[in-house]
Write a structure and sequence with these properties.
- There is one protein chain.
- The protein is an alpha/beta fold.
- The protein contains 10 helices and 10 strands.
- The protein has helices spanning 38-50, 101-110, 122-129, 131-139, 150-157, 161-166, 168-179, 214-227, 232-252, 266-273; strands at 2-4, 27-32, 55-60, 75-77, 89-93, 117-119, 144-146, 182-185, 191-193, 199-202.
- A hairpin with a 5-residue loop joins strand 8 and strand 9 (191-193).
- The longest helix has 21 residues, at 232-252.
- It is globular.
């Protein structure tokens, strides 16, 4: 098993040239945000923005919301009004999506798109309950990334959460194999596995991360890295470490662990991405 630490990360974002524009850094579209749950999608979209994605869209099922006042840079619209994205880009489905008929229809359509796709939260719950969606995930040619917590993993695998926790290694292997996807099994010592790859185990993070919205922030981090050109496995490994390391920074600054919020991770993830430790070494990695 490979250990995820700052000195073992498989990739770094390339240094930005002096002559560049936002179109050089990819696009992220987050699809979710049903009424009462828009915050989940907005957190994921904000995280993608803080991690350097060039354009970030939030496709919200809650049609009452047309702007994120905390991040007016986000382009907020309805899922069906999202533009057709071209590579490099990453799609996200699930944060605050809900399990309505409208959510199912949006997910069904999104699974057919030929771009990297991250599936989280209610997207995973819908897939767990529908063999047709499950088959559609397996049939995808573009990269797919699953990010379940133990409860969601259990539903996908037909196990209890306790059974998943009792065999985390076997569970992440089964998720990866069953869905032909990179799988992230969240929790203490988060595990990452890609098809035909080795398992990675993360060492960053702390109990303050047991708080609402933390998974949404991870989702946005991962999507931004993929949109900026990282391979799916490398983005999964790097993003998981960044997420935990940002929480560790917050605790060092006396912001937790008790009462640490997901939003407080965003500037700290950005700081880490811009630190010397995250820059490519001269002449290669």
């Amino acid at each position: 098993m490979l250990e995820i630490r700052s000195n073992t990360l498989p990739d770094r974002l390339a240094a930005r040239p002096a002559a560049c524009n936002k179109g050089d850094f990819g696009a992220v579209a987050v699809i979710g945000g049903a009424p009462g749950m828009a915050g989940a999608a907005l957190l994921a979209a904000r995280a993608a923005l803080y991690c350097g994605a060039g354009r970030v869209y939030a496709g919200l099922l809650d049609e009452r919301i047309g702007l994120d006042p905390a991040a007016p840079e986000l382009m907020v619209t309805r899922p069906e009004a999202l533009p057709i994205l071209s590579a490099p880009a990453c799609l996200v489905a699930g944060p605050g999506l809900g399990q309505s008929a409208a959510a199912h229809a949006v997910l069904w359509a999104t699974l057919a798109l030929e771009l990297p796709l991250l599936l989280d939260a209610d997207a995973l719950n819908l897939i767990a309950a529908d063999p047709g969606l499950r088959a559609r995930v397996r049939a995808r040619a573009a990269p797919t990334l699953l990010t379940p917590h133990p409860g969601e993993a259990g539903r996908l695998l037909g196990k209890t959460s306790a059974a998943v926790q009792g065999d985390r290694l076997g569970s992440v292997f089964q998720l990866c194999a069953d869905f032909r996807a990179v799988a992230i099994l969240k929790g203490s010592g988060t595990l990452v596995q890609a098809p035909e790859g080795e398992v990675w185990r993360n060492h960053s993070g702390n109990p303050g991360m047991a708080a609402p919205g933390m998974g949404d922030v991870l989702t946005g981090i991962l999507a931004a890295l993929i949109a900026q050109g990282m391979g799916t496995e490398a983005a999964a490994v790097t993003g998981v470490w960044l997420h935990g390391a940002a929480a560790d920074l917050a605790v060092e600054e006396d912001l937790g662990p008790v009462g640490l919020t997901a939003s407080e991770l965003l500037p700290r993830v950005r700081r880490l991405l811009n630190s010397a430790a995250m820059r490519p070494a001269p002449g290669g990695y």
